[in-house]
Structures are given as C-alpha cells and as structure tokens.
Amino acid sequence: MIRRIAVILASVAVTLCAQAPAPKAPVTPAQAPTQAKKSALNKADMEAYLRHLFVWPDPIVLTISDPGKGPMPGYSEVKVRGTNGAQMQDETFFVSFDGQRIVRGSVYDVAQNPFKNENDKLKTAGRPGFGTVGAPVVIAEFSDFQCPYCREEAKTIRENVLKTYPKDARVYFFDYPLEQIHPWAKPAAMAGRCVFKQSASAFWDYHDYMFEHQADMTADNLQSKVLEFAKGVKGLDPAQVQACMVSKETESEVNASIAIGQSLGVNQTPTVFVNGRKLGGVTAWKDLKFVIDYEVGYQKTAKNAGEDCGCDVKLPEFGGTSIPAPGKLQ
C-alpha cells in the first residue's frame, strides 16, 4: 500500500552545545560576505551527536562531507553516510553557519518543482531507454543484475509500462551494482555497457537475459554466459563484446552511473525515480501505476512541471510498497 506523502521542511532542530554562544562583535557590511560563507561545523561533535541520534555504535563508519551551499540562508548543506560492511544509509543535514544547529529533512522552494534537485541530477544522455522519447513521465531505474529484488522490479516494469503507457512513459536504466555483496554485479554491468555500445536495442535483450538466467550466473562463468548470449543476437559481434569486457573499457561509465545514484541518496536496489519521485525497494505494479497516472495528469496542468532537467522530458516524496533490499542500513 502506498505510503502517504511526507513533506518535512524541518524534522529535527538540535543544539550541539549546552551553552549559548557568546555575544559577537558587530559585523560590518564589508565583513558580511566572508562570514556568510564560513561554517563553524565541528565534525567530531556532529558525529558524536548523530551516533546518539541514530543509535549508530562504533562498528558503523560515519563519513561527513565538508559544508556545501545550502538552500536556506544561514545554513550549509552537509551529507552524512553511515556504512557497516555492505550496508549504508545516507542522510542530509543543514547546519547553521555558527555550527550550533542542524536541520534534518528536505527544503522546498514552492516556486519550483519539488523534485528539481533530483531531476537536475538524473541525466539520461547515454543511458539505455525504452518508450516514447519526450513522454510526460520519465522512470529512472537504479538496478543490480545480481539482485533478486531487482529481477522482480525489472519484470514488473518490462511487462507493464510500455503496454500501459505506449506514449506517456519513458524508462531509463542506471547501473548500481552492489559490489560488496554481489561479486559479479559490476562485471555484468560493464558487459551490459559493452553490448549497449554495439546496439542500443540489444541492451534490453541482454537486460532480460541476465535477469532470467540470474540463478545460473557466477563470477567464474559470467564471461562465457555473456558470449553465449551475444552469439544469438543479431547485430552483436561476440569478439568485440569479449574484447570490451577484458579491457574493462566501460568501467568508467558504470562508475559514473553509480556516482549519480550516490548523489541521489540511493542506498538500496532497486530504486526507481518517477519524474524525480524516489521509490525505494520493490514497488508493486498497482502502486507504481498510481504514481505514473498521477504524473501524467499533473504534467498537463501544473505550472512548475517544466523545469529543464537535461532529460528527454520536462519533469516534476511519494512512497511505494517496499521490500528491504541488500545495501540498506537497517
């Protein structure tokens, strides 16, 4: 059942120090720009506070980014990742310039599409896709060929989206292999890019083949299985596919896809974005259809539906039924 929308402008506001800051000298106009860019963030204090907040003991490694430009005046944006082996969880905080307060959640500008940040990052150039170019709904799927949950979601999307929305939806595939727990996932992703370089349409044959034969794949037999597939597909040269796999020439492309997912806070597979709306875990077709239907209607009337995202369409948190998948910190 679809979760209700939760728009949280400021879900947590905390004080990092027990005492109020000492009075400061007046700031002259000439000094103001310099002070506005400076953050007094103390990473050690913030880490201790977050470990208490989330009950994250020492085995969980915290990575805290340097303060970046935030959407709220007087606050910097800080990204935090907690990792424990193959599991991870990403959080975004907004930290006051004096380092005394943090806000956890999302900040929205009501004059813009609420998913503008996500859509700005979802660059689809060079990504495998199917469906109508320029459709009002874009579905970006972050997936792992070795993930059983991804196999389930892939089947749902392949069997239903194009049939139900022949003109209103476009699907793009983003590689997001979880290397720590899936030993052949990244080589499979790289092989998929090798296939895509030769034939864009053959990639989807490869996509379906890999998920259909997922149980038969191992790190040792992956290359032979891929070549077996390539021999039976028109337009593919198995020798070129093999050379591409051996040279690892597509690894940078897979890494670029992973980097996009990380920038979007993807911490489980599958994760699907529907016009920027993030749906983590396996989403039942009735739930996914509900979101797509809503977006089709929304795009026809909403004034802020058309920011340029660099995709094929002009795009606009809504939850779906989720099954926890590998890679999410519990």
Structure, explained:
- The chain is an alpha+beta fold.
- The chain is 36% helix and 18% strand.
- The protein has helices at residues 32-37, 43-54, 116-121, 148-164, 185-198, 200-212, 222-231, 238-247, 251-263, 285-301; strands at 12-15, 61-64, 68-69, 75-84, 87-96, 101-104, 129-131, 137-143, 169-175, 271-274, 277-280.
- A hairpin with a 2-residue loop joins strand 10 (271-274) and strand 11 (277-280).
- The radius of gyration is 22 Å and the shape is globular.
- Residues 1-36 and 305-330 have low confidence and may be disordered.
Helix tally equals 10
Low-confidence stretches: 1-36, 305-330
Report the top-level CATH class of the largest domain.
Answer: Alpha Beta
CATH topology of the largest domain: Glutaredoxin
Strand content: 15-25%
Biggest sheet layout? 6 strands, antiparallel
Domain module tally: 2
N-end to C-end Cα span:
21 Å
Secondary-structure element pattern, one letter each = EHHEEEEEHEEHEHHHHHEEH
> Architecture of the largest domain in CATH?
3-Layer(aba) Sandwich
Class derived from helix and strand content = alpha+beta
Taking all Cα atoms into account, the compactness measure Rg is 22 Å
Helix amount, in percent? 25-40%
**Overall 3D shape:** globular
Mean pLDDT: 82
